[in-house]
Design brief:
Length: about 180
């Protein structure tokens, strides 16, 4: 297949630029991307890397396409499998948290479907507040949690249950699977 003058853009998880060029020809210009689901509403994050056959102009053109749908991160391809766990699979982690909060609301007598919009608003507002505060996530936890208060009681249960370690383990599993798909 002639590849001269063409730039190939991949969105396949775990498929390396090297593997793509093996299939297309070693002179193929390849940009590997890892977009996430919020791209569908213009609030996505897309990581991009490229091989040396891609011109700066072609790369910038493709990056701008994705930038029109959210944020872009230009990273070394060696980080591409790991970024999947950070930006591309992570929306599912957030959805699971939203589901857990909604299920907890139902257990406390609320109509979880009726509260879904409020829970989503809480997540969006919390993310925006963190983003604009200039503070760390740990700082913002301290802003919300009063010593001896209700939030501190809830955080104790989350820590005891291993939430932070579980998320890190999930991210490692995600990256391991991407590495398996890459044949690494």
């Amino acid at each position: 297949m002639p590849t001269d003058g063409k730039v190939f853009v991949s969105i396949m998880a775990g498929v390396t630029i090297n593997r793509i060029t093996e299939l297309l020809g070693h002179n193929a210009a390849v940009i590997r991307t890892m977009p996430n689901a919020p791209l569908l509403i213009g609030m996505g994050v897309t990581a991009l890397s490229r091989n040396t056959a891609v011109t700066d102009e072609a790369f910038e053109f493709v990056r701008c396409i994705f930038a029109g749908l959210g944020q872009t991160l230009v990273i070394d391809e060696s980080q591409m499998n790991a970024i999947i766990s950070v930006t591309s699979s992570a929306p599912a982690y957030v959805y699971m948290l939203i589901k857990a909060i909604s299920d907890g609301a139902a257990e406390q007598g609320f109509d979880s479907a009726g509260l879904l919009d409020a829970v989503c608003g809480m997540v969006e507002g919390s993310a925006r507040m963190l983003r604009t505060s200039g503070r760390t996530p740990e700082d913002m936890i301290g802003v919300v949690a009063s010593k001896g208060g209700t939030t501190e009681a809830a955080l104790g249960v989350l820590r005891e249950g291993g939430l932070e370690n579980t998320v890190r383990a999930a991210m490692s599993a995600c990256t391991r699977r991407a590495d398996e798909l890459s044949g690494m």
